[in-house]
């Protein structure tokens, strides 16, 4: 999972103008939303996954195609299996969307300067309203036998480079944590590369603990395929 | 996850007696089976999890009750969510069971000496046929975005102490691996405590790789509950 840097402290809520109505504008508002992904978002998800692989120096391991994602990601109701939240944003107010399973989180973020997004074009989810996809989080239920409760495991968290250091990674991960609490779940877990000190700081600021004693074991490729012929 | 020690090399298949029919008996055959757990197995699962918490020196984290296990573990079809394989065994041949979702793995294992099981009475799943529960594995689907395929995550693997070092842990983990291949899944993953050198050897012998760079992050307890009130 990638997180480029810890977010800055949250931006203060916009204050009403103190002088007459013609006084200074309040910077460049960015209208942001975290919503459930749909099959129509697969092209964006696929590009984001590849960018994440490059960031993690694991591009050679990334085989995800749009077809494979479409086939595997939308077979169950949200939160019961693999689930994706997308972060999208626009310089115009966002039109409401219908989303019965999950109320999107909408937030207006103010920046002093407009954000330059050199790779905006492949990430335009709504050309009419100029809405762009900026990041995603993919998670699914796991289980803690000690708690005898489900939790969420966050497989991927990624924000496109020009949108980093603005609190968006924190918003995406917080959305998962909030959903976990809402559902009475016991834990939210993920992994971090031990050299990613920025990410570790960010996660600790979020209230997570890094469990230093555990190591991941993985059985895959030919070593896994060999079990097809094993007599148990 | 607990694994006490690497298994010995597999026992050779029983050979037909070389002499006249009255020649030496073939030791003490143990009839073993790996099958899907059902709700009636919850009392055994609960005891096994508690034993595992003791083994992992994590009893302060143990909160599971039979009720909480029953209410969280059997809400979906096998393999689509949290799934348990139980290892049971008997000195009598095992009668066939009805199991449409999964064909049990059965194996006869021969030992020179009978196994003394001092806590057998707490684990008798079938008093009439004298079948005893000896271990379990709990696993659920996870997702690899790089492969765009599901996999299995093994949350728990445990064999009761008197039945260790006989290949049963390998059988349980192999059963999960075989199911993963059968379903076209890409990976089987789990974690190991970095001091558990026996388990690490065992897992490497199974063909797994230890991913040294990744660390688990966990958000839980009050730190997780705080997200209930956070404005995303």
TrEMBL record, chain A:
Residues 32-231 form the N-acetyltransferase domain. CDD domains: NAT_SF. Pfam families: Acetyltransf_1. Keywords: Acyltransferase, Transferase. InterPro entries: Acyl_CoA_acyltransferase, Diverse_Substrate_AcTransf, GNAT_dom. The keyword Acyltransferase applies. The keyword Acyltransferase applies. Residues 1-25 are annotated as: Disordered. PROSITE patterns: GNAT. GO terms for molecular function: N-acetyltransferase activity. Gene3D superfamilies: 3.40.630.30. Residues 1-23 have a biased composition (Pro residues). This is N-acetyltransferase domain-containing protein. It comes from Rubroshorea leprosula. The lineage of its organism: Eukaryota, Viridiplantae, Streptophyta, Embryophyta, Tracheophyta.
UniProtKB/TrEMBL annotation, chain B:
The lineage of its organism: Eukaryota, Viridiplantae, Streptophyta, Embryophyta, Tracheophyta. Residues 1-23 have a biased composition (Pro residues). InterPro entries: Acyl_CoA_acyltransferase, Diverse_Substrate_AcTransf, GNAT_dom. This is N-acetyltransferase domain-containing protein. Gene3D superfamilies: 3.40.630.30. Residues 82-222 form the N-acetyltransferase domain. The keyword Acyltransferase applies. It comes from the Eukaryota. Residues 1-24 are annotated as: Disordered. Keywords: Acyltransferase, Transferase. One of its GO terms (molecular function) is N-acetyltransferase activity.
